[in-house]
Specification:
Elements lengths: L13 H38 L9 H14 L6 H17 L2 H14 L3 H22 L4 E6 L6 E9 L14 E7 L7 E7 L4 E2 L4 H9 L11
Antiparallel strand pairs: 1-2, 1-5, 2-3, 3-4
Length: about 230
């Protein structure tokens, strides 16, 4: 008998909440910072070519040299403080980005970016990469399952990924939804097949993902210890 999937929601621990907020913060910060860095680099590259033909007397740094020296003498370099500030700031941005105000500000900012021809292309590409990378880390396989594949009567181990969304979800049977399941190959579990199955056809296993992976790699020779 298949076990109900997704009906019981456990309250995440504070560690999971911090991890979720941190990843959310990275997804928000990474596209903005990388886009700004790329644009800043392009502007800097152009400036370096332009100012290279300007006489040294008229270089901009001549006008701010005195102020720069004063600030430089007052600076104290303490290693690690910047990292702590970055972690705290990223957690705060992730927490803020999950709220109504934060989402509204993000939508407003992205609306402005969409009106910038070059910036919107860079930002869109970097954002997609960031969401792909960090969401994969956040949505890793959390359950092993048993499904009938490649035909009825033949069973294989799979790993439950996520519930199907978008256009694929439109093909789900009535009164059910599709679940994406990764079916690994033996002895190399990094390759395999991605299947979309109705939740009623998925039999969740009590063994962990690591135990199921060992079973696949060993070609059925290493079974997990029976839990009392």
């Amino acid at each position: 008998m298949s076990k109900p999937h997704g009906n019981i929601r456990r309250r995440p621990s504070w560690v999971a909440s911090l991890r979720s907020n941190f990843l959310t913060g990275l997804i928000i910060i990474a596209p903005i910072s990388l886009t700004a860095w790329l644009m800043w680099s392009v502007v800097g590259w152009i400036d370096s070519r332009v100012w290279s033909i300007i006489p040294d007397t008229y270089q901009p740094h001549r006008y701010v040299q005195t102020l720069y020296n004063i600030q430089l003498n007052d600076q104290v370099d303490i290693r690690g403080v910047g990292l702590v500030v970055f972690l705290v700031f990223t957690l705060f941005v992730g927490w803020l980005g999950k709220g109504l105000v934060g989402r509204s500000l993000i939508r407003f900012g992205e609306g402005l970016v969409e009106r910038m021809p070059v910036v919107r292309t860079v930002y869109g590409g970097v954002k997609q990469i960031a969401e792909t990378v960090f969401n994969q880390a956040n949505n890793s396989f959390d359950k092993a399952c048993l499904i009938e594949y490649p035909r009825k009567g033949i069973w294989t181990i799979g790993f439950i990924a996520t519930r199907a969304r978008g256009e694929i979800e439109n093909y789900a049977p009535k009164d059910d939804h599709l679940i994406s399941v990764f079916v690994p190959t033996t002895p190399n579990p990094t390759s395999g097949f991605m299947l979309f199955l109705p939740s009623k056809d998925i039999n969740e296993l009590d063994m962990s993902v690591e135990e199921a992976a060992k079973l696949v790699i060993s070609a059925g020779l290493v079974y997990p210890d029976k839990k009392e």
